Automatic annotation (TrEMBL):
It comes from Spongiibacter nanhainus. GO terms for molecular function: triose-phosphate isomerase activity. This is Triosephosphate isomerase. Pathway: Carbohydrate metabolism; erythritol degradation; Carbohydrate degradation; glycolysis; D-glyceraldehyde 3-phosphate from glycerone phosphate: step 1/1; Carbohydrate biosynthesis; gluconeogenesis. Its main location: cytoplasm. The keyword 4Fe-4S does not apply. It catalyses: D-glyceraldehyde 3-phosphate = dihydroxyacetone phosphate. Substrate binds at N9, W10, K11, G174, S213, G234, G235. The keyword Transmembrane does not apply.
Length: 251
């Protein structure tokens, strides 16, 4: 049976004092034994601070990006998967729409980042999703399928079982819009069916989470869908009360 995963992507937010305050709020408001796996994804510069502050808490730490190169070398500005694991990370986000759209990351590069993460023992959250024009044109499943296929091509069947897929409709990220539970479930079911073409056993165990303006008020209905296994939460993860409420919705 798949367990829920609630992941908080802080994006480029935070200062030392604010990070400590947010974590203090989470530690007091989250249950000691939550009914879901919980992870937060701070900016890279705060990963060590967050890891130390969360010692003993039921919250894992992840990174927002990772280098596609698996060995140390002359890659100025990059952070390797081995470095992230060394600093206490368990997860890493790859292929977020902001990385794809603002920084030109291709699906092929995203796939290599996912592979590097797995080889270092990290769990990659592979983000896929369509923009508003693509949805309006009826191309949602084609876009998501292309993004997912790029990852499937470079991973072994066993490695494929080590990923989390995050479906994030780009038109719903930071806009206040949220895909209806039916819209989200349709894409999640498509993703699981695509994975099943490689291995039905793995498709049944891989977690597929929804991202796109997830709030406490919408989380319960989204998480009740058969193929939605949690959420990748953006802005709401910066509010300890709201994020804790989303985590409780997964119970």
């Amino acid at each position: 049976m798949r367990s829920y995963l609630i992941a908080g992507n802080w994006k480029m937010h935070g200062r030392r004092d604010a990070v400590v305050e947010l974590l203090a709020g989470l530690k007091t408001q989250l249950p000691a034994e939550p009914g879901a796996d919980i992870a937060v994804f701070p900016p890279a510069i705060y990963i060590d601070l967050v890891s130390r502050e969360l010692q003993g808490a039921p919250v894992a730490v992840g990174a927002q990006n990772v280098c596609d190169q698996s060995k140390d070398g002359a890659f100025t500005g990059e952070v390797s998967a081995e470095m992230l694991r060394d600093m206490g990370c368990r997860y890493v986000i790859v292929g977020h729409s902001e990385r794809r759209e603002l920084y030109g990351e291709s699906s092929a590069l995203v796939a290599q980042r996912a592979k590097a993460a797995i080889e270092a023992g990290l769990t990659p959250l592979v983000c896929v999703g369509e923009n508003e024009a693509q949805r309006d044109a009826g191309n949602t499943l084609d876009v998501v399928g292309e993004q997912l296929t790029a990852v499937i091509k470079v991973l072994s069947t066993q490695q494929l079982g080590s990923i989390v897929v995050a479906y994030e409709p780009v038109w719903a990220i930071g806009t206040g819009k949220t895909a209806t539970p039916a819209q989200a479930q349709e894409v999640h079911a498509f993703i699981r069916a695509s994975l099943a073409k490689q291995s039905e056993e793995i498709a049944a165990t891989v977690r597929i989470v929804y991202g796109g303006s997830v709030k406490a008020g919408s989380a319960g209905e989204l998480f009740a869908q058969p193929d939605i296994d949690g959420g990748l939460v953006g802005g709401a993860s910066l509010d300890a009360g709201e994020f804790s409420a989303i985590c409780r919705a997964a119970e």
